[in-house]
Structure formats: C-alpha cells, structure tokens
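re: the backbone from monday

yeah here it is again, tokenized this time
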C-alpha cells in the first residue's frame, strides 16, 4: 500500500493545477453547479429545497444526480466550519461569487481525492485475495492510475466519476472478502446495507441502474443462484426496499417538492434515434479515433474485457454477469456521439475499470507464468500512451485543448479531433511545449513558492502562460492538504485493515465496518481541525509578510512578456461571435494580461473592460459587474460595457436592470463606439486583427451583431417582465443571444 500511495502522490503532483485552485477552486461550470448544490443544500440545512442554490433556481433543482453530493456532504460539512467561523457569504447563499474558492467547496474536492485513494486501497486489498502483491499492485497501477481516472480527481473533482469508482470498488471488496460466506448470510443488516449501496450506485449515475440490480442479485442469491430458497427472496425484498426508500428520499421527494425533472440519462438519445449509416464509423471511432480512442486512452480496459472471458476464479460467474452493465455503458458512449465532454469515454471507464481489474491481474499472472519471466516492462511501454495523453491534457489552450465541434448522430461535443497526434508531436518535436505542459502542476507551484520565499522576480517562469497573482495563504494550505491526503488515507486504511484477514473477517460486521470507516474518516479529519486552523493562522501571517510583486514596480518589457501569442489574440472575439463560452484555460491568460495593464495604467478603460469580460466567464460575476460600472462612470460611450451588464442582469433575473442597460447601449451610435474602439490600438484592435477578412469589415460586422443581440436582450427582458412565459418560450429565448 505504501508504494501505491507514492504513485498516487506523484500523479497528483503532476496533474493538480494550483493556479486553477487559486482562480476558481477547481470549480467548473454546468454539472459542477448541480453536484455541489446537492451537497450544500444538505450541509446548510435547505434540503429538499434548492432555493438558495443560485444555479438551480431557474430550473427548479439540479439536473445531475444526487449521489456524489451525498458522498461528499460529510466532508463539505466539515470544511464548511471555516466558512461558518468567518461568516462567509456562502453560508447565506450559494452564488457564482460565494462558492468558488470557499472552504465548503474545497470539502468536495477533498472528498474526491479521499474516495479515489480509498478506491485504490480497496481494490488492492481485494486483489491480494487471489493474487500476489506484485500482480495486485500492477493491476491497480495500470488499470486505475494511468488511464484517465486521476483527471477526474485532480482536475475535475466536483463530478460524479470518483463516486462511481468508489462505490464499485467497495462492492467488489465486500464481494471478494465474503465470497465463502454468501451462502450462509441471514442478516437483515447485511441485506439492508446492500440495498443502500446499490441504491447509491443508481443515485450516483442513473444509467448504471443495471449495475444496481445485478449487484443486488449477486449478493442476495450468492454466486450460484438459489432460487428455491425463500430466505434468499426475503433478503432480496429487504435490499430492494432499502433501494426504493433511498430513491424515494433523495430523488423522488426533492423532485416533487421543487417541481423539476432531473437528468434522464441515455433515454433522451434513445428517443431521438440515430443514423444507422454512421454506426460502423462511430464504432471504429470509439476504438481507434485520434481524439480519445480507447486503444490510446484505455488500452488496459480493452485487455481486461478480453481477459474477462478467460477468468478462472471462484467468482468468474459473477464477473460474467457484471459484463452486462459494462455493455450498457458502452451503448451510452456509442449513442452519445462524443467522448462525453471531458477526457475519455467517462460514461464507461469509471464503472468498468474496477470490474475489469480482476481479469487484468489474472492476465498478468498467466502471461508471466507462460513466458516464465516478469513482463511488466511490456505493460509499462503500453502505459506510456494513456499516461502522456492524461498528463498533457489541457497542456496549452490550443492544440492540447477542447473545442465545441459537430460529432456523430447530429450532436455537438467538446473534442479535439487529432489530440493523440498533438500529444506525440509535443513529445517528439516540440520539447519546449512539452516541458511547459508537463510541469504546470506541482513543479510550477514549487518554483513559484521558492521565488516568493527568496523575494526575487523569477525569470524562467515567464515562459509559461499560467500566472499567479498575489500569494494566497489559504490556497497554499489547500495544496498541502491535497498532497497529504494519500498519506493520511494510508494511515487510516492501515489501521482499518490491520485485522482484515480472511479468517478474522466477520460477515455480520461488514456493514458496521463500512459505517465505521466513514465515521473514523470524519473523526480523523475533525481531530486535525485545530491543527489546520493553526496552520491557516500561520499562513495569514505569512501572507502579511509576503511582499507581492506588483507590475507597477517593473517596466513595459515585463508587461509584454505576458502578452497572448499572436495567433491566438482573436480568441475572445471569435468565441463570442460563435456563441460558445470561452474555455477557462484560454481566458486566464487574457485575464492576467489585462489585469497587469490595468495595474500599470489605471486609466486604460479598454483593458478594464476586457479584464471584466474574462472575470465574467471565469465566474467572478460580481467583480465583472463592478468593473463595467466603473468604466461607464468614466466613459459612457463603451457600448460593450452596457451590453455585458445587460447580460449579467438578465441571467441574475433582474430584467428591469437588463432592459435599462440594453436601452442605454442602443442609444450609442455605432460610429461613436467604433471611434472609441479605434483609439484602443494596443488592446481592442489586436483582438480583431488576427481574424480573417478586412479589419474595418470585421469591426462593422461585430458591432452590428452586438447591437442585434442587445435588442434581443431588450425584447426578452420585456417579455419576462410581462409574466407570460412558458417552457417553449424559454427554449426560444435561449436562441436570442
């Protein structure tokens, strides 16, 4: 377990982006809002109401399932003590300004890392029942650590996939540890616990409902069905009752109270139908596509599927049954038309990897015995492909990033058609870009902290686009906590597994021990609460003594080092015109550059507007609003400031303000606004010059499109204020701007 812990730490050190934690607390848009809303509604005593969860008010409630929020809630509650202590705004209302960077939100991040470590330890212990420590460690390393799962832990932690992994790993652990006693079980507590866990599988991702019922059948009817045993059916009824009760409390009840319908999974795509002509090419694409083809991103998953049908263990039949929901998850990926909007085929790998890890370890053992040598180096060479695909993901905001593109079956998704080629292009031919992408995690942060400690302006760091502003003591503390979680988890699990042997394991205490695991984890964290508070105080002092490197103390040459690259300076305008939201990684470069300009030249309204624009798309809505208003006090001809304020007020539900701002914007003559833009030769004009077509023509087209969008906001606001609106009108309204 110690070696596995070190591996987890190293991968986390490379993948975690401290500058993202500093910018938004690893908080992303859309799904993250819903998952956190579940946890925060419970923690702050609002459940089943979501009225104080800002992002779910318009839709009535979260569209994503509640399971991940339930698992994260104990940790969110623990870390919310910091927010309660200082009466942070998040305690009263969860908004775009109060959530990112809060300690409550960090509790969700903590839970994802903890559950990931727990999953790895549970799988390792499960494997040692059948295999030696060497094969068990190899299987966990190659199946879990190098095939994309750590991205959902250290890059997108407020998500559902770590919860999926944990629940599957826990069920596998309980099955293997009790494989010889399933035929003897008569405990209602056991059956209730199985119903609870399988219910959590469903609540974590509804399209995994097949896993829920197959797991229930495996545990209730043993490895070989005993259909004539009445007590088995009574046990199954108890499990099913627990499943239904959990679903009623955490899915049906809140949906009825708030009058909303949550995510329906693959049903919407089955209802749409699909083109049979595209099916062969789609199937080939899933395995061989140069974006996230499984052969590149999850080769050991494919090996595990092949080995599944050669598996020869006492649980082989159970694993055959578990292949059915794996096939269902594959169908989800197939019909989705894309890899799933994030790294890899996430609707498949999170739930399938724990199941396929047993066949993989079996294959490792059989291959070594057949060739009479340790062939781990062969698996290591294969692992380089998914490993670099994972490590370099979002290594820069152009070739190693995602854009919204048409995909299969008339759908759209965030993808990168030639991502795998770009990865190896960086490795083989662009060593400088590879270095930038590779060290943006803990290495870069360590460099940054070292530079601050010696109070020197670092020079080598200027080659990288991730920029840190003033030193944040709470971010530093959070980074230390995240890096320490694998080692804290190791101590905890060593204690729990100390007497966990086949002879000592008591079936009747299985569920009790599970509950004890969660309680012990919370008590362990609570015991360290005072220690963390002391560290936090020490870091506050450290912040006060740390002199920030201000751009006002340096020259224009330093400022120019942060300028966006020439081929990408039109990114903001391009994404605005296409209707897409700019990708956060790209926006941060602009945000930092414009912030430096404002610091150096406080009168540059153009830079302040663009900094506010970046703030808005990074979730800092309140700050963006204040910046736009500040600009208009100095120069009331900035049309774009009025327009963006109208958008902000509209989505906040302040339709009167939105109408006022849209009306003021439309009163500005296009030629007056263009005249103002033409004076911004160093800030505004470069954004447009990089775009194809004549400069004047592009500017005129952009202004006309912006005025049309402003008029639509005016109309939509008036329509909203009239009170005559229904769901069809909302769908029409979304097309307006």
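seq for it, each position gets an aa:
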């Amino acid at each position: 377990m110690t070696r596995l812990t070190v591996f987890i730490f190293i991968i986390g050190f490379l993948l975690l982006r401290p500058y993202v934690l500093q910018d938004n607390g690893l908080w992303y848009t859309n799904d993250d809002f819903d998952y956190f809303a579940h946890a925060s509604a419970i923690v702050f005593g609002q459940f089943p109401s979501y009225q104080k969860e800002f992002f779910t008010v318009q839709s009535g409630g979260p569209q994503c399932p509640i399971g991940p929020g339930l698992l994260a809630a104990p940790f969110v509650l623990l870390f919310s003590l910091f927010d309660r202590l200082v009466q942070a705004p998040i305690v009263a209302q969860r908004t775009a300004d109060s959530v990112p960077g809060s300690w409550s939100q960090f509790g969700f991040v903590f839970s994802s890392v903890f559950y990931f470590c727990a999953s790895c330890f549970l799988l390792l212990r499960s494997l040692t029942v059948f295999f030696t420590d060497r094969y068990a460690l190899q299987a966990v390393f190659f199946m879990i650590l190098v095939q994309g799962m750590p991205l959902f832990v250290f890059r997108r932690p407020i998500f559902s996939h770590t919860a999926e992994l944990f629940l599957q790993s826990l069920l596998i652990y309980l099955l293997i540890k009790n494989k010889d006693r399933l035929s003897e079980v008569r405990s209602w507590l056991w059956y209730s616990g199985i119903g609870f866990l399988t219910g959590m599988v469903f609540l974590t991702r509804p399209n995994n409902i097949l896993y829920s019922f197959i797991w229930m059948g495996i545990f209730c009817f043993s490895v070989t069905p005993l259909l004539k045993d009445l007590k088995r059916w009574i046990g199954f009824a108890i499990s099913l009752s627990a499943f239904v009760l959990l679903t009623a409390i955490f899915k049906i009840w809140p949906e009825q109270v708030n009058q909303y319908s949550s995510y329906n999974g693959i049903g919407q795509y089955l209802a749409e139908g699909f083109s049979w002509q595209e099916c062969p090419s789609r199937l080939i694409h899933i395995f061989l596509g140069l974006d996230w083809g499984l052969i590149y991103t999850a080769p050991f998953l494919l090996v595990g599927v092949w080995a599944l049908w050669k598996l020869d263990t006492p649980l082989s039949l159970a694993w055959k049954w578990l292949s059915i929901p794996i096939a269902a998850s594959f169908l989800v990926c197939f019909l989705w038309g894309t890899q799933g909007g994030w790294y890899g085929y996430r609707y498949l790998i999170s739930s399938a990897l724990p199941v396929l890890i047993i066949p993989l370890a079996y294959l490792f053992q059989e291959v070594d015995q057949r060739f009479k040598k340790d062939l781990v180096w062969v698996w290591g060479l294969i692992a380089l492909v998914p490993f670099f695909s994972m490590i370099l993901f979002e290594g820069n905001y152009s070739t190693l990033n995602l854009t919204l593109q048409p995909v299969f079956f008339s759908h759209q998704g965030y993808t990168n058609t030639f991502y795998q080629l770009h990865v190896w292009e960086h490795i083989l031919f662009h060593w400088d870009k590879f270095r930038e992408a590779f060290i943006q995690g803990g290495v870069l942060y360590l460099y940054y902290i070292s530079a601050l400690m010696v109070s020197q302006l670092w020079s080598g760091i200027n080659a990288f686009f991730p920029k840190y502003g003033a030193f944040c003591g709470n971010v530093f503390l959070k980074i230390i906590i995240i890096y320490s979680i694998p080692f804290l988890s190791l101590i905890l699990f060593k204690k729990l597994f100390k007497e966990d042997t086949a002879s000592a394991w008591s079936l009747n205490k299985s569920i009790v021990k599970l509950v004890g695991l969660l309680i012990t984890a919370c008590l362990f964290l609570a015991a360290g609460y005072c220690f963390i508070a002391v560290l936090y105080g020490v870091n506050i002092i450290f912040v006060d003594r740390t002199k920030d490197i201000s751009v006002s103390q340096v020259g224009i040459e330093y400022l120019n080092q942060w300028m966006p690259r020439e081929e990408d300076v039109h990114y903001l305008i391009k994404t605005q015109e296409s209707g897409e939201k700019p990708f956060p990684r790209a926006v941060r470069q602009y945000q930092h550059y414009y912030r430096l300009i404002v610091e150096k030249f406080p009168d540059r309204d153009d830079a302040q507007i663009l900094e506010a624009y970046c703030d808005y798309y990074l979730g800092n809505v309140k700050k963006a609003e204040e910046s736009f208003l500040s600009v208009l006090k100095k120069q009331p001809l900035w049309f774009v400031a009025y327009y963006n304020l109208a958008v902000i007020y509209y989505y906040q539900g302040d339709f009167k303000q939105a109408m006022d701002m849209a009306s003021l914007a439309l009163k500005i003559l296009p030629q007056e606004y263009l005249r103002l833009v033409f004076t911004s030769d160093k800030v505004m004009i470069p954004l447009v010059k990089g775009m194809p077509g004549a400069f004047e023509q592009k500017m005129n087209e952009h202004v006309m499109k912006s005025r049309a969008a402003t008029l639509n906001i005016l109309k939509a606001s008036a329509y909203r204020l009239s009170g005559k609106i229904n769901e069809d009108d909302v769908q029409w309204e979304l097309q307006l701007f």
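DSSP finds 35 helices and two strands in the chain. The first strand starts at residue 403 and ends at 406.
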